[in-house]
Design a protein that fits this description.
Order of helices and strands: HHHEEEHHEEHEEEHHHEHEEEHEHEHHHE
Pfam families: PAF-AH_p_II
Largest sheet: 11 strands, mixed
Structural class: alpha/beta
Distance between the termini: 42 Å
Helix content: 25-40%
Protein name: Esterase
Number of strands: 15
Number of helices: 15
Strand order of the largest sheet: 3-4-1-2-6-5-9-10-13-14-15
Shape: globular
Keywords: Hydrolase, Lipid degradation, Lipid metabolism
Oligomer: single chain
InterPro entries: AB_hydrolase_fold
Length: about 425
């Protein structure tokens, strides 16, 4: 049953928005759907006696890191997934801090309620990355950031980067890249998309879970229409966060030295899979984003009957600002010539653009899966063949280094005016990156 349902969705969309299009949307047929209802606080799946542990790679920049989580409410918009309710989001703001945090004081990678669901039978750890349910201590993973740590005063306002995760993934699933950018002096805002993300924990104890697995089980599903709704919701969420950033500069919920250091004239966006699609489409719709990076996200939808191609408006129109495409060697991925949405985008984009492909990689290689899954596999929490399917056979440390280098180089060039020339062409420093321009 799993293969039949996954195959149907994979054929109409491929893997570029996320394996979650083929897996997350199909999960209801295998795992049973979970709606957007609030899960009682403390609810968690049965846990194996000995859980696997993993850690994130060390950031490379000179700055210590702080983080804080905020709830935002869009009073002018109804939640498209929960009619009758205002749209509310959770974001995390990551920023340079005054001093490194001690190991025992590091912020959690995932809030415990969210971690329990993520690693349980209905969570993205299972339906996107096929880890064994309950076998990993996700709440035990620690970041390198101090929770509510004092912010480092800035001589001039810092550029801001938004981060959007893939379909079904929580905002935490790109933390290794986010922390590295912050260690280099950026402020990064990670955005959860409730009812799309596997789970979103709110301060009042609610845990809003993804509606996508349940929707995938509906007869006669129009996958293209569903994915267009997903993208429209994500873009609206992102533009609302952009609106709120102005208010956050005077918000007492932020550390004092941070509130006044946000440079809203230098905003970039990075996203993985559906998050990369979101970055491109939001740039198309909103001029406040000056530069963007798409980490292996398609820019088209399946047609009305589940076949053919429906181009997004950003693919049809292109962009007039800098944009970086970063592909993998997943099925239906690679460089821009191999994807209809990327090819159209490439043809129509007037701004600076470049395309690199990480050789030996798979769709999860630009996420925390690249560093975490091999550690979990060594402890028996995920099969080795699943790891290869998710992240390929590129060496994990090289994939992490290359991703950080290319994303950082791009943002430095277009948000800071610092050009290390890495994106001028193929680099002997990174032979695993195929460059197309």
């Amino acid at each position: 049953m799993r293969e039949r349902v996954q195959g149907r969705i994979a054929r109409v969309h491929g893997r570029g928005l996320r394996t979650g299009v083929a897996v997350a949307l199909a999960a209801t047929a295998v795992l049973g759907g979970v709606g957007a209802a609030a899960v009682p606080a403390g609810a968690a799946p049965a846990v194996a006696e000995r859980q696997a542990r993993a850690g994130l790679p060390q950031p490379t920049g000179p700055y210590a890191i702080g983080t804080t989580a905020l709830r935002l409410v869009d009073h002018g918009r109804e939640d498209p997934w929960q009619p009758g309710r205002e749209r509310e989001l959770m974001i995390s703001v990551w920023y340079p801090a005054t001093r490194p945090v001690q190991a025992d004081g590091r912020a959690r990678y995932m809030e415990p309620r969210a971690a329990g669901h993520f690693g349980g039978p209905d969570g993205a750890g299972v339906f996107n990355y096929r880890t064994d349910p309950g076998r990993t201590d996700w709440s035990g993973v620690r970041t390198h950031a101090g929770q509510e740590a004092p912010a480092l005063p800035a001589a001039r306002p810092r550029p801001v980067v938004l981060y959007s995760a893939g379909l079904g993934d929580p905002r935490t699933w790109g933390t290794a890249l986010v922390e590295d950018l912050v260690s280099r002096g950026y402020v990064v805002v990670t955005v959860d998309h409730p009812s799309d993300a596997s789970e979103v924990a709110f301060p009042d104890g609610r845990l809003t879970t993804s509606v996508l697995p349940a929707l995938a089980g509906q007869p006669g599903l129009d996958v293209g229409a569903l994915l267009r709704k997903v993208l429209a919701t994500r873009v609206a969420d992102t533009r609302f966060v952009l609106d709120e950033l102005t208010a956050l500069r005077t918000d007492r919920r932020l550390p004092p030295a941070l509130a006044g250091s946000l440079d809203l004239d230098r905003i970039g966006m990075v996203g993985h899979s559906a998050g990369g699609f979101t970055a491109a489409q939001t740039m198309h719709d909103d001029p406040r984003i000056k530069a963007g990076v798409n980490l292996d996200g398609q820019l088209h939808f399946p047609g009305p009957d589940g076949t053919g191609v429906h181009l997004s408006s950003v693919a049809e129109d292109g962009l007039d600002r800098p944009f970086l495409l970063m592909g993998t060697e997943s099925e239906d991925s690679g460089g821009y010539p191999g994807q209809p949405g990327w090819a159209a985008f490439w043809q129509h984009t007037r701004g600076w653009k470049a395309d690199v492909t990480l050789l030996g990689s798979r769709h999860g290689s630009y996420t925390d899966a690249q560093s975490l899954l091999p550690q979990l596999a060594r402890q028996g929490a995920v099969p080795e063949d699943v790891v290869r399917a998710d992240i390929g056979d590129v060496r994990p440390e090289r994939a992490v280094l290359a991703t950080r280098a290319y994303v950082g180089s791009f943002l430095d060039r277009w948000l800071r005016g610092h050009d290390d020339r890495l994106l001028d062409g193929p680099s002997a420093l990174f032979p695993e990156m195929r460059f197309e321009r």
